[in-house]
Specification:
It is a single chain. By secondary structure, the chain is α/β, with parallel strands linked by helices. The protein is built from ten helices and six strands; from the N terminus they run E-E-E-H-H-H-E-H-E-H-H-H-E-H-H-H. Strands 3-2-1-4-5-6 form a six-stranded mixed sheet, sandwiched between helices.
């Protein structure tokens, strides 16, 4: 496969239903060579967990200066076009894009080749098949690990190496396959839900830390956060369970 697009994302966490994209990187490959690149930050609409900033080097200021999630999806779809995708553990990155696409009612069905699956199928060594481990094993450059475009460059090098070494004898493993991820569309919390949540917070004198603990993620402020309808419903139920309902005279 000589023409494809490599893609990699950095996120605030692991769950596409509750976390969000911070950075997108992509490389368009033509005739086995870099033809174009894409890199941008995405506004998270929340505080970035400290461990994520330490891991990626992405600061709150960098992310807040990025584009909206809707703009990010448009730029990705425009850049990728009809290309086959290549990535390392690609279903993880795709799940975030697919969740966003479903929320925005935008079609986003892609075929892909995953270098993690190739490594697990074809390589006895190294024991760990992370991108870090494979780059170290094959002496591939990847100085800025956990940055989207740098990980794309490393993934492209790895994919080209695997193609040269194994594609002839293992042709079927390099055939692009449809990515399978079917999220439910998320809708924003309703005004009625937010009013009920506000009443509960005031009644029980809850602090931001209480809300974050119940929500199981950090937010800048519940009253202006991007809570989904289902997320808000679960949060209200958890407040009922931990603190009780409002007792009216």
């Amino acid at each position: 496969m000589k023409d494809y697009t490599v893609i990699d994302l950095e996120m605030t966490g692991l769950d596409p239903k509750t976390e969000t994209i911070l950075e997108v990187g992509a490389i368009r490959v033509r005739e086995h060579a870099v033809a174009d690149t894409l890199q941008f930050f995405v506004q998270p609409g929340r505080k970035i967990p400290e461990k994520i900033s330490k891991l990626t080097g992405i600061t709150q200021q960098m992310a807040d200066g990025g584009i909206t999630r809707q703009e990010a999806l448009q730029r990705v779809t425009d850049f990728v076009g009809e290309d086959v995708l290549v990535g390392h553990n690609l279903i993880f990155d795709y799940s975030f894009l697919k969740q966003l696409a479903v929320n925005e009612r935008v079609p986003f069905e892609k075929k892909a080749v995953d270098t993690l699956k190739l490594a697990r199928k074809l390589l006895a060594e190294p024991e760990k098949k992370s991108l870090d481990s494979l780059c170290a094993y094959y002496h591939l450059g990847n100085e800025n690990r956990h940055r989207a475009l740098d990980d794309c460059e490393a993934t492209m090098e790895l994919f080209e190496l695997l193609q040269r070494e194994y594609a002839t004898e293992h042709e079927a493993d390099f055939v692009p396959k449809p990515l399978q991820y079917r999220p439910k569309r998320q809708t924003p919390a309703t005004p009625a839900q937010l009013r009920q949540l506000e009443e509960l917070v005031e009644y029980h004198r809850l602090e931001k830390e209480d809300i974050c603990r119940l929500l199981k993620r950090d937010i800048d402020g519940w009253e202006e956060s991007s809570l989904t309808r289902s997320e808000c419903s679960r949060l209200i139920d958890r407040i009922f369970s931990h603190y009780g309902r409002i007792h009216r005279d």
